Amino acid sequence: MTVPTATAPETLLAAPDQASQRQITGEIESLHAELARRERAGEDLPATVHDFPPYRSSILRHPTKSPKLVDPETIELLSPAFGQRDVAAVESDLTIQHAGEPLGERITVQGRLTDSWGRPVANQLIEIWQANSAGRYIHQRDQHPAPLDPNFTGAGRAITNEAGEYAFTTIKPGPYPWKNHLNAWRPAHIHFSVFGSSFTQRLVTQMYFPGDPLFALDPIFNTIWRQKDRQSLIGVYDHELTAPEWATGYRFDIVVDGPDATWFENESE
Amino acid sequence: MAVPPRTLRATPGQTVGPFFAYGVGYDRMHQVAHPHAPGTVLLGGTVYDGVGAPVPDAFVEIFGADADGVVPRRRGSFRRDDHTFTGFGRAFTNDDGHFEFFTRDPGARPGRAAFFAAIVYARGLPDRLHTRIYLPDDAAALAADPLLRDLAADDRATLVAERMPDGSLRHDIRLQGEKETVFLVF
């Protein structure tokens, strides 16, 4: 047996079969129907499915065994602790990290981080990263021939306050092409990485923007197979958050879930 | 005391995608302990996909107790000062799929098995995967562990690190296929 060696990451980004959008959309629709059928038959399904072949790079990377249900131990019921020692206040404004102003629509994204019982998750870390207004990531592997913006990196951090609230100022990202299939475009999105009160609540997700015409076409968005769950990842335009002559405002509330034991853990604090 | 019903629906997870490096990378993120401090151990391994190819665009997070078994509650995971032990670290896989941490052997209560809580993220992985990395040293504690004793021997082996002759820990993570790592839900 030969030992496979790592392929250059650039070549890994393109799916070999380069299916048509029509085929991918068809696969998404039939998978969603099949998952709904399984749920009606009584199966307990996660919100995000790992086995989702329209997302081609998941085919060899998703587990095939059922995950093992386990009682969390202390280390899993607690979380790394963060505070302003870890993150400077300016890190939440992605528009002031360079000498000049980035191009694009200035926006604010604000929301509340809570657990499933609605209790605020205070003093925890939220990291975000995104493409620029032209849909280009600063990452060296992104070869999309859209311009880089010398005044925009696209990464930020914030620590939630006592009420679990956070706020970022940034630029609305553009949609971005990838090589999952022919003419594949991701809806505009901001990546979110969130720490809850326990390690079991750790969440990495993506926030989208209302009314994006690419929603139904995107295999990644649709790894979340229920409409109501996908809806929860779409930021809500809120005119109350829009600042005159400055920036439009979006609300994105985040709910981290953990097992029942996390309820007791946070009650005792 | 009964747990009240949940009032909010959980926000679902999504893949980290291919371009997470500049978003979640930070200085000395894999140095949970200073590399040259007494008691520091190297924990390293490779993330593999379903055909045994290394995964070069993944990252692993660990959270572990200190050597005395106490879970650290100190801040500073993102601003390493080289002496505060926070227990948390993050490591990207390199082009060979390899990740490594400098950390400490976590302790455990007497008779209990010591482990790192671990989470794996990757391009192509629609949501994060929880797992554990157990220390191999206390055979009796491993045999009595509530999770491990429920598993077949092959599955159990995917959760226990190997102690190398130089004292370091080696632990590979297989996302799919033969010797697929046991992943956890809580």
UniProtKB/TrEMBL annotation, chain A:
All copies of domain Intradiol ring-cleavage dioxygenases, residue ranges: 109-137
Matching InterPro entries: Intradiol_dOase_C, Intradiol_dOase_core, Intradiol_RC_Dioxygenase, PCDO_beta_N, Protocat_dOase_b
Q: Which GO terms describe its molecular function?
A: ferric iron binding; protocatechuate 3,4-dioxygenase activity
Species name for this entry?
A: Herbiconiux ginsengi
Please give the superkingdom of this protein's source: Bacteria
Annotated keywords: Dioxygenase, Oxidoreductase
Q: Which GO terms describe its biological process?
A: 3,4-dihydroxybenzoate catabolic process
Which family would the database say this protein is a member of?
Belongs to the intradiol ring-cleavage dioxygenase family.
- UniProt protein name: Protocatechuate 3,4-dioxygenase, beta subunit
From TrEMBL, chain B:
Q: What InterPro entries does the annotation carry?
A: Intradiol_dOase_C, Intradiol_dOase_core, Intradiol_RC_Dioxygenase, Protocat_dOase_a
Is Ribonucleoprotein tagged as a keyword? Answer: no
- In Pfam terms, one family for this protein is Dioxygenase_C
* Superkingdom of origin organism: Bacteria
Q: Keywords on this record?
A: Dioxygenase, Oxidoreductase
GO terms (molecular function) for this protein are:
ferric iron binding; protocatechuate 3,4-dioxygenase activity
Q: Where is the Intradiol ring-cleavage dioxygenases domain?
A: 36-113
Q: What protein family is recorded?
A: Belongs to the intradiol ring-cleavage dioxygenase family.
Among NCBIfam families, the record links this protein to:
protocat_alph (TIGR02423)
Identify this protein by name: Protocatechuate 3,4-dioxygenase, alpha subunit
Q: Which organism is it from?
A: Herbiconiux ginsengi
Q: What lineage, starting at the top, does this entry show? A: Bacteria, Bacillati, Actinomycetota, Actinomycetes, Micrococcales
